[in-house]
Design goal:
Structural class: mainly alpha
Number of strands: 0
Strand content: under 5%
Helix content: 55-70%
Shape: globular
Number of helices: 11
Largest sheet: none
Low-confidence stretches: 1-5
Order of helices and strands: HHHHHHHHHHH
Radius of gyration: 19 Å
């Protein structure tokens, strides 16, 4: 990530994001982060107090950034087009998304008290859950929250899988010379999955809440 012309705190966060994603919490020292950010260790301690706080603030920053991008999307679009735009946000921010997932999958320290509230905020789900609920609402009469969340999670499963896999060197090599990773094919995948999920939701196979 380019950390030029940014404040000290931002430089530390950029450096920490890359290092935590690459080497995990245990494999990343405050000294290494400070060196990568071109700041002294005292600056890291001043802004974050501990490596644990730095880890969770780095994680929260990635989540918040992607969510803010999704919250700017137009919920009046047809649902399949809206979901495609969500996919484009993920691709546009693929480095942030991949690093955030790496941090999740590599474990991490116990959640500090300062970030317990972050984990308990809003709707349960990936960044963009609240705006996706709003976009789905005009497409269904189903009010069962469990059914709505099933649809949300199913759509995100498709989005995240497709976005992550399409950005890997292995998958890009496998499909080299084909049209499988073109926007046309990727959009067809997203649209078909979204329509199937909404159709199943509207089939009213869920009990009333």
């Amino acid at each position: 990530m380019n950390n030029k012309q940014t404040g000290t705190k931002e430089k530390i966060l950029y450096a920490a994001c890359d290092l935590f994603a690459k080497d995990g919490f245990a494999g990343t020292s405050v000294r290494i982060i400070a060196k990568e950010a071109n700041v002294n260790i005292a600056a890291v301690n001043y802004h974050f107090n501990s490596k644990e706080n730095l880890y969770w603030q780095t994680f929260a920053k990635g989540i918040d950034y992607v969510e803010s991008q999704m919250n700017d999307l137009d919920t009046s679009l047809p649902i399949e087009d809206f979901v495609w735009e969500m996919f484009n946000v993920m691709i546009k921010n693929n480095t942030i998304m991949i690093n955030t997932f790496r941090m999740m999958l590599s474990g991490g320290p116990a959640i500090t008290p300062e970030y317990e509230s972050f984990c308990q905020r809003g709707e349960l789900g990936p960044p963009g859950t609240a705006i996706l609920i709003k976009a789905i609402a005009p497409n269904t009469k189903i009010k069962n929250k469990e059914a709505i969340m099933w649809a949300i999670h199913s759509i995100f499963n498709c989005l995240i899988h497709t976005a992550l896999m399409s950005q890997t060197v292995y998958v890009q090599k496998v499909y080299e010379g084909t049209d499988q990773l073109t926007d046309k094919k990727l959009k067809l995948t997203i649209v078909q999955h979204t329509k199937a999920i909404i159709n199943h939701l509207n089939a009213n196979t869920f009990p009333e809440s």
